[in-house]
Amino acid sequence: MESMSALQGLLGGVLIGLSATLLMGLLGRVAGISGILSGLVFERGRDRPWRVAFLLGLVSGPGLLMLSGLGWGNVAGDSGAMIGAPASGLTTMLIAGLLVGLGTGLGSGCTSGHGVCGLARLSPRSMAATLVFVLVAMLTVFVSRHWLGGAP
Amino acid sequence: MKMLAGYLAGLTFGLGLAISGMTDPARVIGFLDVAGAWDPTLIFVLGGAVVTTFIGYRLVWRRQTPLFESRFQLPTRRDLDIRLLGGAALFGIGWGLSGYCPGPAVASLSGLSWPLAAFIVTLIAGWWLARRMNSRH
Prior knowledge:
The structure holds two protein chains of two kinds.
Chain A: H1 2-27, H2 33-42, H3 48-68, H4 90-106, H5 111-120, H6 124-147
Chain B: H1 2-20, H2 25-32, H3 41-60, H4 82-98, H5 102-107, H6 114-136
């Protein structure tokens, strides 16, 4: 069971890498989700059409898999599901969303822009950013789960 | 053609997130929870994605230009500053609290719930705030 989820992780990761390669090869752009989506919301101009199309693709990928009923999801403890339940309630999510938006906006990237594309470009900024957000996220989980006790 | 390219890239990205299990916050938090029942799945996702992108980029960069645009647009800065590292730290707190980074959160829209909707609303508010702070800089 565990080796199956690792294999699915690897396969999904390769697909994400193919997506990044497609976007670079066809449009010459880095596949940074925070940049693409915040640009879509806050910028006008010639990038708008492909960004809208990217968003539709991003949402329809898991949606189509759900409709297909193929059961290819990798939700922990629920082999039939494609999308896992949120980890916390409304208040925590409101705060988390704000921090993720502000942080990826100021730090110019998220797990995809820095973590995938930036590491593949061997960018020192992306390596530093990835190291910081992974370590801080681990610390956050440690504090919220093991110090304050229970799921946040 | 540019729209088709954008759709295909988004679709492949969304399929990758769903098949790898990154649309499940429990998997992500399981990876971040190094002191608990550690879930290594995310390492395989990131590893597969970085290696594929590394090879793919070098193949497409053999051409002078992308297929549908006149030039490759790549970030050029290499220096570290407080905005980059502070931003990454804020992002890390939010990511650890929710198990969502922007891609998986948006890719999970077909399984919309109130907590996810709340996350996305304040995510956009955070982007807006960051743009204001960046433009004043």
